[in-house]
C-alpha cells in the first residue's frame, strides 16, 4: 500500500468531511409523472410510472440496498423533501425490476457519483 506524506492537513480534513456530503432533489416533472394514469394492455393498471420505479431502483443500486431497505430509504427521502408522492412497495419493485433496466455505468470508487432523478 502506498504511503503519502500529507502536508496540507486542513485541506485533507475538509476533503474527508466532504466525502460524506449528500444533496437530494427530484425534478418537478418526475414528481408530476410519479403515478401512472393510463392503462397498458390487459389486467390491472400500474399504480407507479416507470420513472418512479427507475428512481427507486437507482437508489437501490447506488446504495447497494435490499428491496425493503430501498422502500424505507425512498420513503425517508420523500418525507425529508416534503413531496406529495408515495414510495412504491418492495413487492412492486421486485415485479417491475424484471422489466426495467437501470441505466447506471460503473465508476471508479475515487470519483464522485452524481445521481439525478428527472
Structural class of the helix and strand makeup? Answer: mainly alpha
* Cα distance spanning the termini: 40 Å
Characterize the overall form.
Answer: elongated
Percent strand equals: under 5%
Q: How many whole angstroms does the radius of gyration measure?
A: 18 Å
Notes on the protein architecture:
Helices cover 43% and strands 0% of the residues. The protein is mainly α and 118 residues long. The chain has a domain at 23-37 and 44-97. The mean pLDDT is 83.
Q: What is the topology?
A:
Elements: H1 9-18, H2 28-32, H3 50-63, H4 67-80, H5 90-97
Highlighted features:
118 residues, mainly alpha
Question: How would you concisely characterize the structure shown here?
Answer:
This protein has 5 helices and no strands. The chain has 118 residues and is an all-alpha fold. The model has no long low-confidence stretch (mean pLDDT 83).
Amino acid at each position: 500500500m502506498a504511503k503519502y506524506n500529507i502536508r496540507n492537513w486542513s485541506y485533507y480534513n475538509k476533503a474527508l468531511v466532504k466525502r460524506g456530503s449528500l444533496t437530494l432533489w427530484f425534478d418537478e416533472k418526475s414528481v408530476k409523472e410519479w403515478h401512472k394514469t393510463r392503462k397498458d394492455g390487459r389486467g390491472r393498471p400500474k399504480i407507479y410510472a416507470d420513472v418512479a420505479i427507475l428512481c427507486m431502483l437507482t437508489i437501490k443500486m447506488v446504495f447497494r440496498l435490499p428491496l425493503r431497505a430501498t422502500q424505507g430509504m425512498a420513503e425517508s427521502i420523500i418525507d425529508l423533501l416534503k413531496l406529495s408522492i408515495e414510495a412504491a412497495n418492495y413487492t412492486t419493485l421486485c415485479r417491475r425490476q424484471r422489466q426495467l433496466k437501470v441505466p447506471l455505468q460503473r465508476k471508479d470508487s475515487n470519483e464522485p457519483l452524481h445521481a439525478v432523478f428527472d
